[in-house]
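pinned: reference chain
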Amino acid sequence: MNWILKLLLTAVAVVVLAKVLPGVEVSGYLSAVIVAVVLAILRLVVKPILVVLTFPVTVITLGLFLLIINAIIILLADFFIDGFAVRNIWWALIFSLLLSFLQSLLHSLLSKEK
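pinned: its structure tokens
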């Protein structure tokens, strides 16, 4: 049940960020929920593979390359979902950073309520 709430909160964050960032578009609330689900799947399946393949670069950049990996995950979601569009990798990077921040904020607010 907790993961459903996290997905819905991620979908809300996607809608908010799409309204704030001019380089990100989402066609509606259903598309935002689909984006949240696809991002969760991509982070579960693709991200570990990318982290292993780019481990030397990640070590050399002291972990900063993980931000690029997150942006690539966002661009992959853009590729797979028709109702979600990100203009370029820079907007994907900004979207990824802000989405992570909002998810952390919402998670901390939820954990305080319990």
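why pinned: Residues 25 and 91 are 11 Å apart (CA to CA). Residues 2-113 form one domain.
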